[in-house]
Amino acid sequence: MNTDWQKYFRDRLGPHFASQKIEKTILKADYHGALLTVWVAENPTQIGISGIVILETRHTFQMVTQDDRFVVIPKKGAVFRFILGDRLFSLFGDGMRTRPAWRGKKPRVKRVLPTFIRGTLQPVPTACAQI
């Protein structure tokens, strides 16, 4: 499973492997199948845990470790690392706390009228109407 994920991630990085656009690619990637190691965590007993991600939610990575244990690691306050080829990548959990499906989508622009246009129309005072 991790071998397939590595192939997917290499293909996704493509020509961005050594450029500034790599951050967006990393943020939008799917991490199901990634072998992650917990580098920093709010719970010190979780530091050093490595496992393959089987489910990613808005607030957690759910992984299976090498000794077949199921662990749930909160993203809040955590830093995860993974190796791809000869490069070490770090994922900051606080920056990834959105639904995985939403990370890859272009944000919708809210079309809101400026505050000076919003509101109800008021009748023009008679003094102004005569000008």
Please describe what this structure looks like.
The chain has 131 residues and is α+β, with helices and mostly antiparallel strands. The chain has one domain (2-129): Roll (SH3 type barrels). Helices cover 21% and strands 27% of the residues. The protein is built from four helices and six strands, in the order ααββββββαα. The protein has helices spanning 2-13, 22-28, 100-103, 126-129, and strands at 35-40, 50-56, 60-65, 70-74, 79-84, 87-92. The protein has a six-stranded antiparallel beta sheet, covered by helices on one side. A hairpin with a 2-residue loop joins strand 5 and strand 6 (87-92). The protein is globular and about 80 Å long. The mean pLDDT is 80. One of its GO terms (molecular function) is hydrolase activity. It comes from Caenorhabditis japonica. This is Ribonuclease P protein subunit p29. Component of ribonuclease P, a ribonucleoprotein complex that generates mature tRNA molecules by cleaving their 5'-ends. Belongs to the eukaryotic/archaeal RNase P protein component 1 family.
Q: Could you give a quick summary of the protein structure above?
A:
With 131 residues, this protein is an alpha+beta fold. The protein is built from four helices and six strands, in the order ααββββββαα.
